[in-house]
Structures are given as structure tokens and as C-alpha cells.
Design brief:
single chain, alpha/beta, Spore Coat Polysaccharide Biosynthesis Protein SpsA, Chain A, UDP N-Acetylglucosamine Acyltransferase, domain 1, 2 domains, 16-stranded parallel beta sheet, nine-stranded parallel beta sheet, 9 helices, about 20% helix, elongated, binds uridine-diphosphate-N-acetylglucosamine, binds magnesium ion
Amino acid sequence: MISSSLSELSAIILAAGEGTRMKSKKSKVLHKVLGKELLNHVIYAAKSAGSKKICVVVGYKGEEVKKEIGESVEYAVQEERLGTGHAVMQADSFIKEEGDVLVLYGDTPLITGDTLKSLIDTHRKENNGVTILSAIVEDPTGYGRIIRDENGNFLKNVEHKDANDEELRVNEINGGMYCFKSKLLKEALKELTNDNSQKEYYLTDTLQIILSKGHRVNALVVKDSNEILGVNSRVQLAEVTQIMKKRINIRHMEEGVTIVDPETTYIEPDVIIGKDSIINPGCVLKGRTVIGEDCIIGPNSTIDNSKIADNVTVQYSVVLESTVDSDTNIGPFAYIRPNSKIGSHVKIGDFVEVKNSTIGDNTKVSHLTYIGDADVGERVNFGCGTVVVNYDGKNKHRTTIGNDAFIGCNANLVSPVAIDEEAFIAAGSTITEDVPAKALAIARTRQINKSNWVTKRKEK
Ligand code: UD1
Ligand code: MG
């Protein structure tokens, strides 16, 4: 016999429901909590608990779900929504004869891999046929109740609509997550009927079937009952977001990040932040953003899918899909658009926009400047109000600026143009031709002073 600790683990995730209360054009499980779909949160938890294979049961808007979630999981289709047991039956061919299988819902994003691991551990240690994840709640309305005998042994699950008065008072509820011995689930599914108040095939009936065949059935009470919360409405989506936000912020604080105001700080689950960085109020850190150590981020900044090195400050700014090297200051009020590479010891000041450009080390772009589709060298100084004119109305062109060039205030660099090393651009110039190294380029009309012009005009 294979030792149970070595046995295979897979997971079935039910996601066929319509989610009418969301009042949405989209499948419920594709709504996002902190940047990640409800279903992907559950898939992530199942994988981190050790599920090798995952089968998602889709129904309503199933094609859309498959397209969005992709090929890392398998799918089964439930054409008609005839109950949780019926949904699992659709995945029958996925259920193996050996090992264990988790059954989860696609709309419970707060479930963690750790909790699923303890469910599996209990299941295997107690050699249960099935182990239920239950919760003790103040208001059990609507949930299935876990009924135990006087010794605390599991007797049955009763659905709210089928429960008598005594059973309705029980506040240990079925969280809707289970670890089954695969073979026993497969067998029990064959015996399900829809002989109940809802005329549904209840997955919960498998519990008694398995028990009646002489196997142990038990429920593990989850420590934090939030973990079983399902999302059925936009209000619950917001509630779950707040809980997850808090959980993520606490994790970063415990790892040495200062979060000045956790209430207004939204950090998506995959973001990494180095020690002694400070996150000021009003920040949204998204996607696969990585922030180094000793950074000061915010107030009021959004950083999406970007890599920020050590000792960087980002104030009142937006950084999207870009990299920023160490000791650089961004903002206040800067906009770093995708595919930009900002060097180290750089200053990107107020009302500066950078798009699809590289900025070399020690370059200063202090105010009111647009740099688009340009490769800028090191130690370049941009005067106030420079514009890289990258678009001619039809095509985008690239401009290069060599090391140590000086760009005077209010210059236009009409792309494509090359400004070589140490070139000097006079303020107010519109540059349309390349500028050789060390040259001064002046491209504006010479000033004329007409003496006494004002007096003469008054006399007229
Ligand atoms: C179910 C349990 C109940 C438990 C509760 C926890 C049953 C019979 N009851 O109740 O004991 O307390 O979960 O939340 O299992 N789904 C499908 N296809 C279906 C039916 C459901 O995919 O035909 C999916 C839904 O999309 C949802 C999940 O299964 O994600 C649960 O369905 P729901 O109807 O909410 O279960 P309950 O009846 O509330
Ligand atoms: Mg129901």
C-alpha cells in the first residue's frame, strides 16, 4: 500500500454558478480582488497546498472563464446547474482511483494554502474518508450545519433549508471545502439523488454515504472563519478586498516594511518589498512589482509591474511597467509610462512624462518635460519644458542624446535626431538636425531690440 503522505493530491474547483447578485456581464469568478481573479486566488491556494492537477468546473460564461484563466488547469463543463454534487459529477473522469482530492469553490478568494495544508494533514493523519473544512460563526443562516453526536463525532451535514429547529441553532457550518479520498468520492457520487427540498444533487450527501460505508468522516474547524467567505455581490467583493488588503499589509510589516497608513495602502499579492522601505498613505502597488530596500514610496503613488531598486523615492507619481535604478528620485507628479528604464542617481521631477525611453545614470530631468522614444545618456541635464517631439502625425521616431549633453529650457527635439556627447542646445531651440559632439546648437530667430518703441507707440 502507498503511504498516504506520498499519495497524489488534486483539486476540483466549482465555478459554474451564474452569480446573479453581482449584476455583471462577466462570470462572477473573473471579478478581481487586489488585481487577481477570484478563481485565480483559489487556484493559487490549491497549488500551494500541493495540488498537482486542478480541474475547474465551468458553466455560465464558461468559455470566457477558460480564456481568461488559461491552460494551467483542466476544465469540465456543467451544462445545467443541478447542485454542488452534480457539478462534481461533471469532473468524474478527472477523479482518480488513488490519492486525495480537494473540492473547493471558485468564489472564496480568502482561502489560504496553509489552511488547505492543515485540512490535508488532518485528513491523512486521521485516515478519514473525507474531511470537511468547517467554521464556527455567529450567524449560520443559509449554510449547511455540521451535526455531531454527544462525543463530538461527525454525524451528518444538514442544509439550512432541510434543517429542523434544533439543527438550525447549530453554529458550526460547512465551509464548502473538503478533502476526499478520491476513490470514495468517485463511488459516493454514483449514489447521489436529488431527493431534498431544493431538488438538487447535494455534494454534502456524499459525507453520509462515505460514513455509512464505515469510513471516518470529520470536520476541521478553520481558525479564521473569513477564509471560507464566498463572494456573491459587489458589496462582498469590497469586504473581501478589505480583509485581503489587511492580511497582505500585515505580512509586509512583519517582514520589515513600514506602512504608514494600512487603511489606504493597496498592495497586490505578488508584490515584493525590501526591508526598511516606507510606504506612505495612498499607494497602490500592483502586479509583479518589486521594490528594493530603503525606498520611500508615496504618498499617493501607483506602481504597476515595475522594478524599483534600493533607496529610490517615488512621490505623487505613477510608474508603469518600467525599471528604476538605485538612489533615483521620481516626482512629485511624474508619469513613467511602459518600457522605460531609468538609471541610478537620476532625478525625474515634477510634471515630467517619460515613455519607452532609457535615461542614463545621473541625468536630471527636473521639470515640465516630455521624453518619448528616446535613449538618453548619463549626466544629461534637461532644462525646464523640453519636449521630445517623437510623433510626426503618422509615425513614431527615436531620438538619442549622448552623455553630458545639455538641453536648454523649452527646446523641441524633433525626432529622429541625434544629439552627441557634450552638445549644448540653446534654450528655446527647435532642433531638427543632428548636433555633433561639443557643438552649440541654436535654432531660433535672433532677438531684435527696437529702442523707444513703447514711447513712440504712445505718441501715435
Ligand atoms: C453549499 C453547501 C453548504 C455549505 C455552503 C458553503 C451543498 C449542498 N451545500 O451551499 O453545506 O454551507 O456551500 O458555502 O453543497 N456550484 C456549481 N454548480 C452547481 C451548484 C453550485 O458550480 O450546480 C458552485 C457555485 O458556483 C458556488 C459553489 O458551487 O461557487 C457553491 O454553490 P452554492 O449554491 O453557493 O452552495 P450552497 O447551496 O450555498
Ligand atoms: Mg445553493
